[in-house]
Amino acid sequence: MKGKVWKYGDNINTDVIFPGKYTYSPQTPEEMAQHALEDLDPNFASKVRQGDIIVGGKNFGCGSSREQAAICLKAAGVQAVIAKSFARIFFRNAINQGLLVFVDEDLVDHLSQGEEVELDFEKGVLESRGARFRLPALPEMVVEIIRAGGLIPYTKKKLSRQKK
């Protein structure tokens, strides 16, 4: 998939990813996507496109255990988040929602805001400015969850196979 890089710094917390003032409003993922990163980057929600990636510094997704942070990014069309490190709860929530997450400090340093990249999840390769980068391998179960579209679809698929 081809997309554009949205690059941010360290300690991007869940309240910045999905503003807390919307936490208790019943919303669909598509409605949540309209508020993604609005306090950090007011243009993000209106300009992000399917296939774009977010690049973050250290401790991406820190803060509360708010699932809406991962939900709104995926619903906005973000295909992956690559960071120097993640808060563990965001990392898990992202996988549960079917959002790819990779830890790769060198790649974060290489990528620039706004550049076009191509990510081939199946091959584990990201192409940027003519260079090919091997992405860190994900555990097979995580790959299966991502392929299924998240933990709930993965679990339903597993359960339906067991019933047969």
Question: How would you explain this protein's 3D organization?
Answer:
It is a single chain. It contains eight helices and seven strands, in the order E-H-H-H-E-H-E-H-E-H-E-E-E-H-H. With 164 residues, the protein is of the alpha/beta class. The chain has a single domain, classed as Aconitase, domain 4 (Alpha-Beta Barrel). It has a seven-stranded mixed beta sheet.
Provide a concise account of the structure shown:
This protein is of the alpha/beta class and about 160 residues long.
How many structural domains are formed by the residues?
Answer: 1
Order the strands across the largest sheet as they lie in space: 4-3-2-1-5-6-7
Q: If helices are DSSP runs of H or I spanning 4 or more residues, what is the number of helices?
A: 8
Highest-level CATH class:
Alpha Beta
CATH superfamily: Aconitase, domain 4
**Helicity, in percent?**
25-40%
Fold-level CATH name: Aconitase, domain 4
Q: So what's the overall shape?
A: globular
Report the strand count: 7
Q: Which stretches are low in confidence, meaning pLDDT under 50 for 5 or more residues running?
A: none
Order of helices and strands, N to C?
Answer: EHHHEHEHEHEEEHH
Classification by helices and strands: alpha/beta
Radius of gyration: 15 Å
Strand content: 15-25%
